[in-house]
Amino acid sequence: MFFSSETLFAQNTIVKIKVTDATNGEPLIGANVDINTNFLITDVEGLVRTKVTFPLTVQVSYIGYESQTKIWTAPSKDPYIITLIPSKTILDMVTVTGSKFERNITESTVSIDVIQPDLLRSSNVSSSSAILNKVPGVQILDGQANIRGGSGYSYGAGSRVMMLLNDIPALQMDAGFPNWNDIPIESLAQIEVVKGAASSLYGSAALNGIVNFRTAYATSEPETRVMTSYTQYLTPKDKDKKWWTDTRYQANASILHKHKWKKWDLIASGFINQQKGFLQHTDENRGRIFSSVRYRVHDRLHIDLAVNANISESSAFFLWKNSGSGAMQFLPTTETNRNSSRLYIDPAVTYFDKKNNKHKLMWRVNFIDNNNDSNQSNQSVNNYGEYQFQNKLDKWDLVTTAGVVGMHNKTNSQLLGDTTFTGTSFAGYVQVEKKWFKKLFFSAGVRYEYVSQSSPENFMGVIIPDGKSTDDAIISRFGLQYQAAEYTFLRTSWGQGYRYPTLTERFVTTTFGSFSIFSNPNLRPETGWSYEIGLKQGIPGAFKGFFDVALFRSEYQDMIEFTFVAPPTLGFQPQNIGNIRITGFETSFTGQANFGKVEVVSILGYTFIDPIYKDFDTREDIRNSVSTDQNVLKYRSRHQIKADVEGRYNKAKIGISFQRASHVVNIDRAFEKVPPIDADVFGIGSYRSIYNKGNYLLDARISYTFLKKMEVTLLANNILNDEYSLRPALIEAPRNIGVRLEWVL
Q1: Which CATH superfamily is domain 2-87 in?
Q2: What is the Cα gyration radius of the chain?
Q3: Strands 32-35 and 38-41
Q4: Using CA atoms, how far apart are residues 736 and 233, in angstroms rounded to an integer?
Q5: Which of 239, 366, 417, 670 sits at a 20 to 30 Å CA gap from 218?
Q6: What is the Cα–Cα distance from 424 to 198, expressed in whole angstroms?
Q7: pLDDT (tens digit, 9 = 90+) per residue, 403-424?
């Protein structure tokens, strides 16, 4: 009995475990510590304290670091020390978006691409949308995201790609439009892009995929970054199109500070931008501030508050003056001036109960005020709330995530007949992820979504019973991933998509030049599904990275497109045009290699899509809406090639970026043959007949770091000075050169 009691005493005792950074010995606050399936989070000293039994198995993970597992067989009076090494290779990348919790990218059942902040800084982008063009299969068309051909061009409304900021939807709710300039690019930790339907996790608008912008964490050692840059636009290849006599440029400046002290984490950043656009009447002045504060009440409870504010003055136009010397000038009556202000307030509470279940409450209040001089002003208040519950059973390798979501927005807009509208939605979801035999990973989820929109009972002659439109849907998904070898991962997934038309799509009423956009309160929801089968092959050793290949197919029913409406009034109306199918494949490589003292980092990819109308042969209205007799969805490039390669030696870096997109086969026929005279009034048809080879973009950059604190980067973009247009009557940037300075304090 004496020896038994001694043994029991030795096995039940309180221990301390400290987690530190291997590079500087600083404690890591908020690291995830799994002690014999007891889940804890380190405090402000990097410590956890708990009663344990021996032998002691400890697993520690922290985003941006390589995970560690330790086993101890006997207690100690001193804290056990675990040092984590910062992740340096793609093989260690961790994502959240596909599962709503941290998971190695190799375990994902869907295609996910990750962009690190180094590429953001070296490319000197001023808007978050610009960096997405480097992701294979992703194209930004006049501010709207298109993943693997799932979206075309929808005139500023109804995105099929969900934009998230720190896991919370950030689309403008009334229009379903992403405000890319709201994203604090100077504060980002990484960008995660999920390809394919993800409505079961994130609801309506995630029909085609997700882009999640995740801001950085505060670091144990305070860090301050100050940046300024200048870019000048040069003469276009066709010199007759140059309309300016002064200097056309873009200038940026930003500051970022990250700090931890005691129980507090702080991130604060600011960004300003001034642009004198290469297109006439496209000047811009904008500023943004972002701040995120976290208070750790104790090791099981922390409270977060983030604030993001953005103000801007900008101008733009919809149609060029003509396709010749006036291609970079605006057609009178199509220009607009805008003053805009947007504010995000994001409180959140995270709590781990005594059974180590995770409870998270997130909220976002978004205020938007857009004042246009073209009768297109709108004001809206958007609320998003989510409660999330998560249970991890390590004994069975089982993770269950469930939650409820509520959204409400109130909009007053001149675009919507100068009337007040409200939209409300509720959802509940559950997802289960299970691993068998440490090789086979299974994921399945289901979501119920209810949508309601309130409006006048009589809107421009259309009767809406009780002024309310409602719909609901049950959406599901599943995925399998099998580790066939140490670095070989096979995956397959299937997911349903659902998107209810936005308020703007149903009630928009506006004009731009000779065209108008007409409302359609009778729009039906879009539904669909995506299927994928893929292989991810890891490459270890001196040449680290992943080769990925995927075959995919998507089908949508009741797809919404802006369709030309017959005379006497020229214009477009959002309509359910029928069923579509997109099939294709994608190959990509992301990795890094060391050749002696030279490190090479690369992102390479090729995407092919075959996007068709399933009803093309039987629907005359569809055939009459496209600009050719080919059955190809509008505003899609069937081939895309992308490559970004950067070499690093000592304090110097050299990077080259190349993008190739094939010619957009079809656009709206009405742009090329304006009814009722069927004439090429705006020169769009003649321009597209000349510039019909697609586009080739070649960029280069070189940088050098002085005194380990200041980096100078020289950039040249569109070196070939290729002239191209992604959407009708809007030319993209000519050759431009720039310089970027960054100080790390």
Answers
A1: Carboxypeptidase-like, regulatory domain (2.60.40.1120)
A2: 27
A3: antiparallel
A4: 4
A5: 366
A6: 20
A7: 999 999 999 887 777 788 999 9
Q: What pLDDT is recorded for position 304?
A: 96
Which residues, 6 or more positions from 332, have their beta carbon under 8 angstroms from its beta carbon?
A: none
- State whether the Cα torsion 276-280-282-285 is positive or negative: positive
Tell me the C-alpha distance between 394 and 40, whole Å: 14
Residue range 616-657, pLDDT digits in tens:
999 998 999 999 999 999 999 999 999 999 999 999 999 999
HSE (CB half, 13 Å, CA atoms) of 507?
Answer: 32
Phi–psi pair at 466, nearest 5 degrees = 60, 10
**Between 452 and 94, residue with greater pLDDT:** 452
The beta strand positions in 455-486, using DSSP E, are 458-459, 462-463, 468-485
User: Count of CB atoms within 10 A of residue 707's CB?
Assistant: 7
3-state DSSP: the chain helix, strand, coil percent, rounded to 5?
10, 55, 35
- DSSP, residue by residue, 601-617: EEEEEEEEEEEEETTTT
- The DSSP call for residue 559 is E
Domain segments of the chain as ranges: 2-87, 92-744
Confidence of residue 200 (pLDDT cuts 50, 70, 90): confident
Q: Using alpha carbons, select from 69, 135, 20 the residue that is nearest to residue 604.
A: 135
Residue 151: strand, helix, or coil: coil
Euclidean distance between CA atoms 624 and 740, whole angstroms: 49
Q: Is the pLDDT of residue 394 over 80?
A: no
- The DSSP call for residue 668 is B
Contacts of 35 (CB under 8 A, 6+ apart): 17, 48, 50, 52, 56, 57, 58
Average pLDDT over residues 529-545: 86
SS3 call for 131 = helix
d(CA 182, CA 169): 12
Which tokens go with 140? Answer: 């930004």
Kindly state the tokens that stand for 302. 């922390």
Distance CA 540, CA 89 (A): 10
- Comparing CA positions, the residue from 418, 416, 348, 369 lying closest to residue 168 is 348
Phi, psi angle pair for 338, to nearest 5°:
-135, 140
- H or E element at residue 78: none
Cα–Cα distance between 615 and 295 in angstroms, integer?
A: 56
User: What class does CATH assign to 92-744?
Assistant: mainly beta
Beta strands in 513-570 (DSSP E): 515-517, 526-539, 543-565
Q: What is the pLDDT of residues 104-126, one digit of tens each?
A: 777 788 888 888 888 888 888 88
Query: 441: how many CB neighbours lie within 10 A of its CB?
Result: 22
